[in-house]
Amino acid sequence: MKRRGALFWLQLGFTLFVCAFLIVPVFLSMMAGLTVNYLTGIESGLTLRWVGEVWSGYRDTIFLSMGIALACLAGTLVLGIPAAYALAKRPTAMTRAIEELLVMPVAVPGLATALALIVTYGAAGGFRTSWTFILTGHILFTLPFMVRSVLAVLNAIDLNTLEEGAASLGAGFTQRFFHVVLPNCRTGILAGSLMVVTLSMGEFNMTWLLHTPLTKTLPVGLADAYASLRLEVGSAYTLIFFLMIMPLLLALQAMTRHVR
Amino acid sequence: MTEGFKPIAITLENCGKTFADGTRALHPLTLEIAASETIVFLGPSGCGKTTTLRIIAGLETPDPGGRVLFDGEDVTALPIERRRVGMVFQSYALFPNMSVAENVGYGLRVRRVAGAEAAGRVAEMLAMMRIEALADRRIDQLSGGQRQRVALARALAVRPRVLLMDEPLTALDAKLRDALRLEIDELLRRLGITAIYVTHDQAEAMALGDRIVVMDHGRVAQVGKPRDIYQRPSTRFVADFIGTMNRINGTVRDGAFVTAAGAIPWREAPPGASEALFRPEDVTLDDTAEAHLRGRLTAAFFLGDRTRLFIDVGMEKPLVTETGARRDFTHDEPIGLRIDPRGLMAL
Amino acid sequence: MRHETPRLILLLLPAGIFFTAFFLLPLSRLFAIGGSGADGFAAYAAIVTDRNYFASLLSTLALAAATTAATLVISGISGVFLQRSRFPGNAILVAMLTFPLAFPGVVIGFMVIMLAGRQGLIGEIALRLTGEKIVFAYSMAGLFMGYVYFSVPRTILTVMAAAEKLDPKLEEAARSLGASTWQVVRDVIIPGLKPAFISAGAICFATAVGAFGTAFTLATRINVLPMVIYTEFTLQANIATAAALSFVLGAVTWVVLAAARTAAGSSVAAAG
Ligand SMILES: Nc1ncnc2c1ncn2[C@@H]1O[C@H](COP(=O)(O)OP(=O)(O)OP(=O)(O)O)[C@@H](O)[C@H]1O
Ligand SMILES: [Mg+2]
């Protein structure tokens, strides 16, 4: 191995410090969730009591969040893939403007979007109090990620020629779409799906205003727990959240590296 | 193996194409293509070859008034998937999500051909293109030449009524191109299929075409057998685009074409011709007093079996000829030339 | 292909209807409501005329700018380093640095509490060393820390991707002409990474301006615009002001992102 200069060690030290900054609190909170008394430290013993407490108290939020995330995924797939296809087929000023517009819910703070939804549909009783109200916000916020992710892949493959190839062999639009277009943008769909599910599970900015006492999602429950319960319970709750999104994050990370 | 192919005649009637942005890619064109004929569209880049092919395929609609007929049946309104054509794209357009065999069988799959029959047909096609060993490969594991074969096999597997090829060999290197050209030629004759081939390579056009359609700026410049196009170009553009053409200015007088560099006997000279054209192979070196033209050598390229000479005769461009003479040429040496009168033409 | 425009419109339609019904329409409604208060549409000027709002706008922007600067420096150094230097453990470091990629704001707030809260690590260490406890989680400093925490992972990814595309020959050419390490960084690496910096920085800035979860977890007392809006809406029930302020907030972030997109010429998208 070649000799490293002082600069290398300086940079490595810095990077390790940044790494510690990011990872140490994660580790601390996982520990806290399993410790009998965080103040006393690990000597007080390990316990699953806090996790159990969270599970019995906040189970519903976990299932609701999963349900919303999956519904959100379905929604973004149904709305997003056809839209991405249409945008990829016609790269005109018009479609670029549409794309720009579709991305706005990401740029505009969730708080503003949530307020806008409330002032417009807040009076629609059944809708306002149902979980679909939250779902609407989540789809708005995650749709751009699905569209962009699929669009990026569609722009990278020679979509028109592939489709013409299939058409020359007798395939009509539906066949082309399902046999050629979808299979060839599956990396984009997969990356978009992971992103959508992860973001929906963690969405708080909008959800905090959109939720009702009966429609609490996991992050809403987390905020509750942080504000009102002891540190160990908040930590245990966070631990559960980590366990739920960890596989998603790892998969997402692998994909990001793969796409790069 | 040729059974199942039912070649058709194709008629283009006033097929023009103006794109949405106003580009006039094709002026109204009328053309009859006979069943089993191989026709080649030849022309420089941007002259409208691909556009014509895409109109025949059904990927573009001709401007109003244009019609495409397959065996007399008007197919202008039919999209490509209902025209039963086979198409080979310049970039091949093979599906990366399918194996070689799946690609070849795709047309049969969308036509719901029964499994056993489809498998048989795929095997037959793979054997015909000699790519049986590649059946389970992914597309990105193939070389350019192999992709080309898969694309051909895929287009032929559905027994199309006409085979359309858009510069199928352009992406390949020169050696492979020659080999595949031979193979395609042999295949087309064996199958007896109507074939339409687009290229900007005149050697390819000459070798493959029963007839060649030379195109220029969206118009047909000339249609004819390769030999006719070469020996009797009907326009200046065709004369210059195909092969090398010498031109010299002068006047017709007493059965000869008189130029500043000498007189060429030319009994059938059209009266009033002010320019004579001839190919390099109709020129021989002649140092005797009987030489038709005299000039000075400006450059000599030794090509191995022959030498290519450029001779200045006081015209805009030097005359070109080739000789097998085994001697050295020196710059500026005087050269006498004799022209075969059978090769002379005027436009 | 031919005649496909109607089909493409049809495919775009579901997303278009959804988007119009649940975004464009509500936003225009929000705009109208923002102007329906006692002051009418003058409410939109309140963000600069009202001293309290203006102060929180300024502190929000200052916080966002500081976050962006710190994130870019940190990610620039570590990102280029990790991309350029191959050493054992490199991949693990990258994995750890990008692990918190999609943590929501609330959780990040909690991470800050774990570090700098009342029972936090920094406080404990300071107590041991100096006998005095340092607690800054529940202040602007804590929020700053949280936003940096949030932004570093995604920015590092962007920087690494851009650094990978940098042509090492440029660097070699600069060295062959006698440039020092610092000159290479200034004249080759930073200009080469500029588009990535601009787009990543814009996302950073926009998120820091509009994010709410972290501030919410840390305290309601931090004077940043999203918290002000939230307070106006829930505690004061002052819907018109909340609407006007959030509309302005949305406009600010959108303009920042659009400007960055124009400057960087690449795709810029933010994440909550
Ligand atoms: N979709 C389109 N919109 C506008 N103009 C087009 C379109 N397709 C082709 N053209 C234009 O029409 C003309 C003819 O194009 P065409 O593709 O038929 O040329 P070609 O002879 O196949 O050339 P090449 O040898 O380069 O493939 C060109 O000027 C081209 O720029
Ligand atoms: Mg072409």
Shape of chain B: elongated
Order of helices and strands of chain A: HHHHHHHHHHHH
Oligomer: heterotrimer
Helix segment tally of chain B = 8
Here the CATH topology of chain A equals MetI-like fold
CATH architecture of chain A: Orthogonal Bundle
Helix content of chain B: 10-25%
Structural class of chain A, by secondary structure, is mainly alpha
Q: Would you give an account of this structure?
A:
The complex is a heterotrimer of chains A (260), B (347) and C (272). Chain A has one domain (59-259): Orthogonal Bundle (MetI-like fold). Chain A is 81% helix and 0% strand. Chain A contains twelve helices and no strands. The longest helix of chain A is centred in the first third of the chain and has 41 residues, at 49-89. Chain B is an alpha+beta fold and 347 residues long. Chain B has helices at residues 49-57, 100-110, 115-128, 144-157, 174-191, 202-208, 226-231, 236-241, and strands at residues 10-18, 24-33, 38-42, 67-70, 73-74, 85-88, 162-166, 194-199, 211-216, 219-224, 246-249, 251-253, 256-259, 262-265, 275-278, 283-285, 293-302, 307-312, 319-323, 334-339. In chain B, 39% of the residues are buried. With 272 residues, chain C is an all-alpha fold. Chain C is built from twelve helices and no strands. The radius of gyration of chain C is 22 Å and the shape is globular. Chain C starts with a helix and ends in an 8-residue tail after the last helix. Chains in contact: A-B, A-C, B-C. The interface between A and C is large, with 94 and 88 residues. The structure holds adenosine-5'-triphosphate and magnesium ion (MG). The site of magnesium ion has 3 residues of chain B, from helix 1.
List keywords for this structure.
heterotrimer, B: 347 residues, alpha+beta, Rossmann fold, OB fold (Dihydrolipoamide Acetyltransferase, E2P), 2 domains, six-stranded mixed beta sheet, five-stranded antiparallel beta sheet, 20 strands, elongated, C: 272 residues, mainly alpha, MetI-like fold, 12 helices, disordered C terminus, binds adenosine-5'-triphosphate, binds magnesium ion
Q: Secondary structure elements and their pairing?
A:
The complex is a heterotrimer of chains A (260), B (347) and C (272).
Chain A: H1 6-34, H2 49-89, H3 93-107, H4 110-121, H5 125-128, H6 131-156, H7 159-168, H8 173-184, H9 186-202, H10 207-210, H11 218-228, H12 231-259
Helix pairs in contact in A: 1-12, 2-6, 2-9, 2-11, 2-12, 3-6, 6-9, 7-8, 9-12, 11-12
Chain B: E1 10-18, E2 24-33, E3 38-42, H1 49-57, E4 67-70, E5 73-74, E6 85-88, H2 100-110, H3 115-128, H4 144-157, E7 162-166, H5 174-191, E8 194-199, H6 202-208, E9 211-216, E10 219-224, H7 226-231, H8 236-241, E11 246-249, E12 251-253, E13 256-259, E14 262-265, E15 275-278, E16 283-285, E17 293-302, E18 307-312, E19 319-323, E20 334-339
Parallel strand pairs in B: 3-8, 3-9, 6-7, 7-8
Antiparallel strand pairs in B: 1-2, 1-4, 4-5, 9-10, 11-15, 12-13, 13-14, 16-20, 17-18, 17-20, 18-19
Helix pairs in contact in B: 2-3, 2-4, 3-4
Chain C: H1 5-34, H2 46-49, H3 51-84, H4 90-98, H5 105-116, H6 121-130, H7 140-165, H8 168-176, H9 181-210, H10 213-218, H11 225-234, H12 239-264
Helix pairs in contact in C: 1-12, 3-7, 3-9, 5-7, 7-9, 8-9, 9-12, 11-12
